Amino acid sequence: MTTLVPITLNIKTVFGVRSSVENGLYFQDDHVIVYPAGNQLIISNVETKGQKNFCCPELENLLYFIVHGGAAITAIVAQGDKENIIVAFYDLHIGRRKRLFEIRNSITSIVSLAFSHDAKQVKHDAF
After folding, report:
1. Deepest in the core among 61, 68, 107, 108, taking most CB within 10 A?
2. In the chain, domain spans
């Protein structure tokens, strides 16, 4: 019979996380978390207690965002000016926007977003 090893959890406090965003906190790897705070995207290392932040204008009207840990890319979905949805992709290593897409069809909201295993494709569900 095998014995179970107890698991130790280390609880950390993160300030500034938007509670209105579903799944608003992601682990990029074992020690780095990514979350939106205001119009900034925060990359915080819980081991070294260091953090980087960079401005993302799309975060003002944030609907959804997701992080691909292996490729260090984040996709941000935001409500645009009129009846459009904006999807922006940011490189987390350099803190710059890589691509920006506007969806101008009759889509009112994107409810789900997922990267492929190699981060070369993105799948979304909308209504």
Report:
1. 68
2. 26-126
57: number of Cβ within 10 Å: 12
Contact between 92 and 34 (Cβ < 8 Å): yes
**Tokens 């009112």 found at:** 108
pLDDT tens digit sequence for 66-109: 888 777 888 888 887 777 888 888 888 888 888 888 877 766 66
Residues in contact with 71: Cβ distance below 8 Å, sequence separation at least 6, in sequence order: 115, 118, 119
Mean per-residue pLDDT for 47-61?
Answer: 84
CB-CB contact of 102 with 55 (8 Å): no
